[in-house]
Every structure is written in C-alpha cells, then in structure tokens.
Specification:
mainly beta; Thrombin, subunit H
C-alpha cells in the first residue's frame, strides 16, 4: 500500500509499494489487459522515504510524462519510466525485470534514487505542481506531477491534453451517462488461488490494463467515477498502482488518477482534472500544448 494515505474524506492514495515487489497491490479492477491499445501509458518507478514505489503516467510529449503529484512529491533522486505493456507475470520475473537503485540492497530503501536506466526504461526528473496540497486542502488539490525524461521518446505518439475546461460540457445530467477510459499498470482485484476466497488486490501479473467507468461527480478540481465492476454502464475502476494514470475522454487526456475510497479499488475513484487552468498553466511551462 502506498505510504501516503490520508484520512481526509476517507480517501486512499492510489500508488503502491514495490518493496518487496511481491507485496499485495492492485490496479485496474475488473478491467482487461491493454496490450498496445494505449502505448503512451507507462509505469513510473521511484523511491520515497517509505520505499520503492510505483505509479502510472501518460506520455504527453516526447520528453514529458504526466502523473500524480503524490507520485513525485518527496521522490528521492531521479525516477524510471517504462512503456512496456507486460513487465512481469510472476514475482520471480518481477525480481528480475523491475529495477532497483544501485544502493538498494534488497530492502526497498535508497538514499540516491535511480542514476541509470536499464534497457526498456527511461530516466527522468520528477516535478510536482507548486500548489499541490498533499491531500490536506479540498480547495487546492492539484494532484498532478510530471517526469521530464532525459531523452525523447519518438516511437510512441503522445496523448493530447484536453482543451481548457473541456469537462464542463459533461456536467450532470450528461455525466452519469458518459463513459471515461482509465488505464494503469498493475493487476486486477481477484480471488486468490488459496485461502479465503475474498476478492483481493493481487500483484501479478504486472501488466498494463484498461477499463471504462461512468461519471459520478464533477467539481472545479476533481472528477469522480463509479468504479463498480457490477455496474452495467461500465467495466470497473482504478486502485493501488494506478495513481497518475490517465483518464481519457474522446481521446483527450482529462485527468490523472488521484485517490479511492476503499482498500480494494472498488466503489468511487477520484481523478485530478488536468483540463483546468490551474493545472494547465503549469503543464505548459514544460512545453506541453493543449488541444484547441
């Protein structure tokens, strides 16, 4: 579970630990393997005081990945990003395929962060929205961060940031009948192979997944979606490991995964709007452009 959990409104930040990699974690619930449907969605790997962690993010230009602020706030050194859709099927593969910092002796702790990128991974510098409130102020949420990559990625087409205030067109009563696509790097919530047969967030396979979720609530800062896989309007939601991953609507990037209300990645999911001026004005300082 991500070290950054807050009691505000009962929310749970949707990142997850990778120390050890095989610890319980969840991501897209009731979704499907993504394959190459969303090649510009990657896994963001980083160190914070609580250990080695992972989130998701979206390539929004050749060198900039948009993610959540709680995935960049307090990061130690540089971070790694990969856009591989299938990272590890088993814990044994994860121990080999998921990098560690040079000074990480296997306990998930690093004082330096990543200093180099193995094949298939990209080194980058994290940055956090200057008005991010660390889940303490509902009026100044701003849970958006970026990773600036050291080298451009030219083989993957970046996502398009939504026009300013694009989601205002989808307020109620339209919102409840609008399906949003959510994507993240993690696993589904499922019944374990042994023990109590209660649906549980499971760590493997560590792959990119996607699903669709209907709108539930829209504020000036936040989009909430209904992540119930039994809802016949959509296919599921997001959970641990999906933080920073995209919300797409009509192919526009409209939000990043911020929080959930349960430890099992179901019920309601909260997403930071990236179509609002307070976020977009900051993103454009990294060279990102908005759809007209």
């Amino acid at each position: 579970m991500h070290a950054r959990m807050k009691a505000l409104a009962g929310i749970v930040a949707a990142g997850t630990t990778l120390a050890p990699v095989g610890s319980s974690a969840g991501a897209i619930t009731d979704g499907q393997p993504d394959g190459e449907l969303h090649p510009n969605v990657g896994l963001v790997l980083f160190y914070q005081e609580g250990g080695r962690l992972r989130c998701s993010g979206t390539l929004a230009s050749a060198t900039v990945v948009v993610t959540a602020a709680h995935c960049t706030f307090g990061d130690i050194g540089q971070v790694l990003v990969t856009f591989d859709t299938d990272i590890a099927q088993t814990p044994a593969e994860g121990a080999v395929n998921v990098p560690r910092a040079a000074d990480d002796t296997g306990n998930g702790i690093s004082q330096t962060g990543f200093t180099s990128a193995p094949e298939g991974w990209f080194l980058g510098t994290p940055a956090t929205h200057p008005e991010y409130s660390d889940f303490t102020d509902l009026d100044n949420w701003n849970d958006t961060g970026v990773v600036v990559l050291e080298e451009p990625i030219v083989a993957i087409a970046p996502a398009t940031l939504a026009p300013t205030n694009y989601l205002e067109e989808f307020r109620q009563p339209v919102l409840n009948s609008t399906l949003f696509d959510v994507v993240g790097n993690g696993t589904r919530v499922a019944k374990p192979e042994s023990g109590p047969q209660t649906p549980t967030p499971l760590s493997y396979p560590l792959i990119r997944r996607y699903t669709s979720s209907p709108g539930q609530k829209l504020t000036s800062l936040i989009l909430q979606l209904n992540g119930n896989g039994n809802d016949n309007r959509g296919g599921g939601g997001t959970c641990f490991g999906d933080s920073g991953g995209p919300v797409f609507l009509n192919r526009y990037l409209v939000g990043d995964t911020s929080y959930g209300y349960t430890s099992k990645g179901r019920y309601l999911g909260g997403y930071q709007r990236v179509d609002i001026p307070v976020v977009q004005d900051w993103l454009v300082t990294f060279g990102l452009t908005l759809a007209p």
